[in-house]
Amino acid sequence: MRKIINDLKQSGIDACSLQDLILEIVKYADEWRSEMIKRGVVKGNTKPTLPEMLYMLKLVEYMKDAEMIS
Fold this sequence. Notes:
The chain is an all-alpha fold. It has helices spanning 2-10, 18-39, 52-65. The protein has one domain. It has 3 helices and no strands. The protein is elongated, with a radius of gyration of 15 Å.
C-alpha cells in the first residue's frame, strides 16, 4: 500500500490509506472538541455524544478542509 501511495505522490497525486484517513478524521474531531471545551460549549469530563448527522457534517467539513472535495 505504501509503495502505491508513494508512486502516486511522485506523480503529483495525493493519496492516503483508509486507515490514515480515519486517523486524520479522528484527530480533526478531537481538535474540534478541544476547541469547543475551550469555548465552554461542552464540559471537559464528558464523552462526546454528537448526533449522527453532526458526525457526518464534521466528516464532510474535514474532507473540504483537506481539499478532498470541493
